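Worked example 2:
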Amino acid sequence: MFGFEKLMVWQKALSFTKEIYMVTKGFPADEMFGVTSQIRRAAVSVVLNIAEGAGRKSKKEFKHFLSMSYGSLCETTTLLRLSLELNYIEEVKHKTLYSDADGIGRMITGLSNSNKIPDSRL
């Protein structure tokens, strides 16, 4: 097991990304290369940046990747809002996903502000 896999924020972001994939299966077919693709890539970027940052050699680099992860999370929530306004998702589902994203965002911020960033190098 890699060190980043032990991070609760990584685990939550991975689950969130899987949920985004499941929800977007119901999006219109003509959005496959539009909103569907973009929201999936943004969500994947959240979890990938956490993993990549954890594998870097310094805490400063890890914080940089956590910042990029947070930016991707903001992109994801914007696309969720757009999906709601385009009636691609129900309001209840939007609220659930938005709440999940908010929790992940708080975890990213907390970890970034912490002096206890784990050293996950091999």
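The chain has a mean pLDDT of 93. The longest helix spans residues 59-85.
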